[in-house]
Specification:
Blueprint: E1 14-15, H1 19-25, H2 44-57, H3 60-70, E2 74-75, H4 82-88, H5 92-98, H6 114-121, H7 124-131, H8 148-151, H9 153-162, H10 165-173, H11 189-194, H12 199-205, H13 209-216, E3 242-245, E4 280-285, H14 300-313, E5 317-322, H15 326-336, H16 340-344, E6 348-356, E7 361-363, E8 368-371, H17 372-377, E9 392-400, E10 409-410, E11 426-430, H18 447-459, H19 465-479, E12 486-490
Parallel strand pairs: 1-2, 4-5, 4-6, 6-9, 8-10, 9-11
Antiparallel strand pairs: 3-5, 7-8, 11-12
Helix pairs in contact: 2-3, 2-4, 4-5, 4-6, 6-7, 9-10, 14-18, 18-19
Length: 506
């Protein structure tokens, strides 16, 4: 019987015990694969147990048949998915099949992705397959703060100790770095006695000097490409993105005064605020584009200055970034997650302006398209735990229709329908619901940003986000008749107040 598609399987997640642990302890005898032929007579619980056992043992046909009864959302102990199970046990065919239904970025209760588990075990075949998925986020960290690449040091150290040339080459091919400091993940008496922290140092300590150069090379092994790199040459050397704090920018042309909050709203249904750090703002402004002067957005800098000016007066901290490349954008957002300012902030606000497409992508200065979903995914709870339960607001001012989408290099479109860690406490506002919305730029910037700044300056001190959005709509319709913005609520479950600080205008 053919397996169902991702849209036809049951979405409910159900938890079963870790049969692998039970099997090793002798508590339970796992269901043998020959019994998988009697799927029709199984109870739901038996089917869930059977599919975990089949995935662990690599019986693909049984997994395919049982999936129609259980759905793909079966979870084992600690919240691991069937893809985690297959990756940890090096079941390549099962893992490849389950990737149709489960994102490679799905995390368990320990923050481990399937790549983390495969890396720790040194399962290079499964890991190589996971790395080929264009949506794999190689920057994902577990709850200990380690990426899959750092966990690769564990099998790499073991292979160096045994000087298993084949295994070393396999590990290097999936991104193991012989020069990466592995002190956090690798221990043991031998390593402590030799006082080494990298695989290269270990090889030298073991007297493998003659083999090091041809095996490890003169520099670290090449990094696996990030999603969207596709082997392209990084053009950042010819483009100069620049950044500044909000307060370093000149005052915006709108010259708005911000009304301060007289009282801070509270309660179980309100996101908590922080008087010392009400929020952090990241402005990503793309106004110039490589070799395409026809796409220049003349009012974009005015927008950035107005946004920075208003949020500074509200007491918010943050940075504004102008005309970054795709790689610079990735690096900046990844760095932002660990910033102390972000850790202390009561909320996170993004204002992103550029050209956009109907496929929810935005254009960077090197003519690359990044997905809006990719940005959102960076701030899931497992990847940004210090922002857990805090509001995250994304304001997208994207101009549609000024260029032909098929002439722009792009990351592959995201695959929908695969199980993944959900987003929480996120709200998005897009300047348009799609179609052709080519703004007329003035020295004051776009209608979206002007309406946003005026709404925040005049009403953020006493209205919550829902009320502000309705006020913003009225202002926006005056400035851009016929353009319809959209609001998307993704687990934004409480009332949110920007709470401008009283001393902000001092």
């Amino acid at each position: 019987m053919a397996p169902r598609t991702a849209t036809s399987v049951a979405p409910q997640a159900v938890v079963v015990h870790d049969l692998g642990a039970q099997k090793s302890s002798g508590i339970v005898t796992p269901i043998h694969h020959k019994k998988h032929s009697h799927h029709a007579n199984m109870t739901a619980k038996q089917a869930r147990q059977a599919i975990v056992s089949a995935a662990r043992d690599g019986y693909l046909r049984s997994v395919q048949q049982l999936l129609q009864k259980t759905g793909p959302s079966v979870l084992v102990l600690r919240g691991s998915t069937l893809l985690h199970v297959a990756a940890e046990d090096n079941q390549v065919s099962v893992a490849l099949f389950m990737m149709q239904f489960i994102s490679p970025n799905a995390v368990n209760a320990d923050g481990n992705t399937p790549a983390h588990l495969a890396a720790r075990r040194g399962h290079t075949q499964v890991l190589s397959m996971l790395l080929r998925d264009p949506f794999l986020d190689i920057t994902k960290r577990d709850r200990s703060g380690y990426t899959f690449k750092q966990w690769l040091c564990v099998p790499l150290f073991d292979a160096v100790l045994k000087w298993d040339n084949v295994k070393i080459k396999d590990l290097l091919s999936v991104g193991a770095d012989p020069d990466l400091d592995a002190g956090g993940v690798v221990g043991g008496a031998l390593v402590r006695e030799l006082q080494v922290t990298t695989a290269r140092q270990l090889a030298r300590a073991l007297g493998r000097d003659q083999q090091i150069a041809p095996m490890f090379g003169k520099i670290s092994a090449a990094k696996p490409p990030t999603s969207g790199d596709s082997g392209k040459v990084d053009p950042s050397a010819t483009l100069e993105g620049r950044s500044a704090t909000l307060r370093q920018l000149p005052m915006g042309s709108l010259r708005l005064q911000v009304a301060p909050s007289e009282a801070v709203a509270g309660g179980h249904d309100v996101y908590q605020t922080n008087d010392s750090s009400p929020g952090y703002v990241c402005v990503l402004n793309y106004g110039a584009f490589q070799d395409r002067p026809d796409l220049h957005l003349g009012g974009s800098e005015a927008d950035a200055h107005n946004v920075a000016s208003v949020f500074s007066k509200m007491g918010y901290t943050g940075h504004t970034h102008f005309s970054l490349t795709a790689d610079q954008t990735r690096q900046e957002l990844t760095r932002l997650r660990d910033m102390q300012e972000v850790r202390q902030a009561a909320c996170l606000v993004f204002v992103i302006s550029s050209h956009g497409t109907s496929r929810q992508q935005f254009l960077t200065s090197d003519m690359q398209l990044l997905h809006t979903q990719w940005v959102l995914d960076l701030f899931k709870d497992s990847q940004c735990p210090h922002l857990k339960d805090k509001p995250k607001v994304f304001l997208w001012d994207l101009c549609h229709g000024q260029y032909r989408e098929n002439h722009i290099q792009s990351d592959a479109a995201p695959q929908h329908g695969r199980l993944d860690e959900p987003l929480r406490d996120v709200v998005c506002v897009h300047s348009s619901s799609g179609g052709f919305t080519n703004y007329t730029f003035t020295r004051d910037g776009t209608p979206f940003t002007k309406a946003l700044c005026r709404t925040l300056a005049h009403h953020a001190h006493h209205k919550d986000f829902d009320e502000l959005y309705r006020t913003f709509l009225a202002e926006y319709c005056k400035l851009a008749p016929g353009v319809v913005p959209t609001l998307t609520n993704i687990g934004f479950s409480k009332r949110f107040f920007f709470n401008p600080r009283p001393e902000a205008n001092a």
